[in-house]
Amino acid sequence: MNLHLTDFNIPVEILKWGDSQPTHQRQHIGTHIDCYNLSNIELPSQIDVKVIDARKIDIIDVNILENLSIKAGSFVIFRTGYLETYGYGSDEYFNSKPSPYLTNELIDRLLDCNVKLIGIDLSGIQHGKDHVAIDKYVENKGAYVIENICNLNKVTTEFKANLKWIQLEGATAIKVEIETI
Question: Which ranges form a coiled coil (predicted)?
Fold first, then answer.
């Protein structure tokens, strides 16, 4: 199962906007790894994934990890239901005011567990002025954020995935392909 948006899933007006942007900005369209600090991304090509159901939760805090085991070196994805409910590119999807977000305490707990990737089916794990700051914070801790993950309603809560990406010099985002194994 493919968990990344393809050009087929992305509205034409967003693709047209992307075509008018510098390459580094275009990479923020669709499923991508944020790397605002321009780190050289070094990730395994295969990774253990845990999907956490966070639908109907506005503020996703550390309590969501109760009774869950998080593996070091893994990829933890939060399923808010936003992408499957509203569709990528819709006004509802990109309007961050009502969107769920991860608390700093939760992010720190995940980093303490040595996760490599924190993913979400939204345009960010935090929004507004906090978006870039939290992505940089996670990157400084040796992990990365992946945004706009799709098809979470079609996978189990734990699986292995293949990752493929190409890092362009100077880009603050890296398009990523995520395929279940």
Answer: none
